[in-house]
Amino acid sequence: MLLQIFGFLTLAQLLIEGNSNCTEVRDLGYQCSDGVEEKRFYYHTKYKICSPFTYKGCGGNGNNFKSADECKETCSSVNKSNITMELAIKCNGTYSPNIKIDIQKCSPTSEDSCSSGFSCKNDICCPNKDYICSMEWDSGKEYNELKHIGRYAFKKEFGHCVRFSYFRNEGNLNNFLTYKDCMDFCK
Q1: Which CATH architecture has domain 10-78?
Q2: Residue-wise pLDDT tens for the chain (187 aa)?
Q3: Is the dihedral of CA 20, 90, 79, 12 positive or negative?
Q4: 132 C-beta neighbours (distance < 10 Å), count
Q5: Which helix (H) or strand (E) covers residue 41, if one does?
Q6: Taking the CB of residue 10, how many other CB atoms lie within 10 A of it?
Q7: What local confidence, expressed as pLDDT, does residue 58 receive?
Q8: BPTI/Kunitz inhibitor domain spans which residues (predicted)?
Q9: Fold that domain 82-186 belongs to in CATH
Q10: What span, in angstroms and rounded, lies between the C-alpha atoms of 41 and 64?
Q11: Of the candidates 72, 70, 77, which has an alpha carbon nearest to the alpha carbon of residue 13?
């Protein structure tokens, strides 16, 4: 088990380091005599998508791609944010990469170091099953023409999972890829 976790962490670190250009801020570059303004794409780290911008022709940085496809191919592994990856590893769960959540550090020796609905595991406050499964489903925020996808959320009052439209951006942890994943986690 430890060897699998180590292998996963090593692979994740390589993917993140290999795509460090994707996490640079957008840089329009500057106008110069040799350059031509043109449409390019950059990876938007907050929204986890490739967005167009007008490149000035010279300078800039590595977060500058000639096509949306090149941007997506290069930056696809960045979709696993460090925060949700840390939660997934330390809390023994899986979390959607675009969910906004703050990590709170804790002390396993202090019972009240985590908020209600969370427990201390591996020095971070992890949301417990009841907390996650009692959240109202959240379709997230529509941004830059992201297509919605079907996801599942547990509805405590019904005692089972329901399908909802998710816009692939933000939302909350009551968000599962399949009905089975949802039921297995929340029942």
Answers
A1: Irregular (4.10)
A2: 333 333 333 333 333 344 668 878 888 999 998 889 999 998 877 667 788 889 999 999 999 999 988 988 888 766 444 555 556 656 766 555 556 566 677 877 777 778 888 888 888 888 889 999 999 988 887 766 667 788 999 999 999 999 999 887 778 889 888 999 999 999 8
A3: positive
A4: 21
A5: strand 38-44
A6: 10
A7: 93
A8: 22-75, 133-186
A9: Factor Xa Inhibitor (4.10.410)
A10: 6
A11: 77
E strand or H helix at 184? helix 179-186
What is the tally of helices (H) and strands (E) in the chain?
Answer: 5, 6
In the chain, the amino acid numbered 146 is L
For residue 76, what is the DSSP state?
G
Residues whose CB falls within 8 Å of the CB of residue 16, separated by 6 or more in sequence, listed in order: 77, 78, 80, 82
Q: Quick one: pLDDT at residue 22?
A: 84
CA distance linking residue 185 with residue 94, whole number of Å: 10
* 3-state SS class at 52: strand
Q: Which two tokens stand for residue 77?
A: 């592994």
Distances (CA, A) of 67 to 74, 77, 78, 116: 11, 17, 17, 46
Q: Which two tokens stand for residue 14?
A: 């390589």
Question: Could you tell me if 54 and 37 are in contact, meaning their C-beta atoms sit under 8 angstroms apart?
Answer: yes
- List residues bridging with 152 in a β-sheet: 163, 176
User: What is the amino acid identity at position 31?
Assistant: Q
Cα Rg of the chain (Å, integer): 20
